[in-house]
Design brief:
Blueprint (H helix, E strand, L loop, with lengths): L7 H7 L8 H10 L3 H6 L5 H12 L3 H8 L3 H9 L1 H38 L6 H38 L1
Helix pairs in contact: 1-2, 2-7, 4-5, 4-7, 7-8
Length: about 160
């Protein structure tokens, strides 16, 4: 298991990010937890909490994350109970998930091309390729639906804020 990076900038070169997301996404997500507006509302994370957050974004389990960050699983559990830490973790997860959705959407064009090429090939049995291409395409459409629902929800929230004022 790789050692945990000592800073967010080390994340780019030393630690893989799970689920096909890029290290840039994790770094951006972790950096986003320190936006100027957020800093005024919540106290900043400690260095150990930063390490734990980075570990959570890169380790396969919470136990592995705690070990990698040099803390006990109980300490990690306590961190997760703190609103600031939990909010930073959720922001990082959302950013990585967003990057993953973007990659899926980029892959959908290749999936369509693969399905098209397979549909024109009358010779070979290509069920594995069809299944993979179809899965990518299905995920892309689901991601587009989620983005649409998100936009609609944001519009409704904006109207709600307007009505509350």
């Amino acid at each position: 298991m790789p050692s945990i990076p000592q800073s967010l900038s080390d994340l780019k070169t030393s630690v893989p990010v799970p689920s096909g997301a890029t290290t840039a996404a994790a770094t951006t997500a972790l950096s986003a937890t320190r936006l100027p507006g957020a800093a005024a509302k919540a106290k900043p994370l400690t260095a150990k909490q930063e390490l734990a957050l980075t570990a959570l974004m890169t380790a396969p389990t919470q136990e592995a994350a705690a070990k990698s960050a040099g803390i006990s699983t109980i300490t990690l559990w306590r961190y997760m109970k703190q609103a600031e830490f939990r909010d930073a973790y959720e922001a990082a997860r959302r950013e990585v998930a967003g990057e993953t959705v973007t990659e899926l959407q980029r892959s959908s064009l290749n999936a369509v091309k693969t399905l098209n090429a397979i549909s024109m090939n009358n010779e070979a049995a290509v069920t594995a390729r069809v299944s993979a291409a179809k899965a990518i395409l299905d995920m892309s459409f689901r991601a587009a639906e989620v983005a649409d629902f998100k936009a609609r929800l944001e519009s409704l929230e904006e109207v709600n804020r307007y009505l509350e004022d």
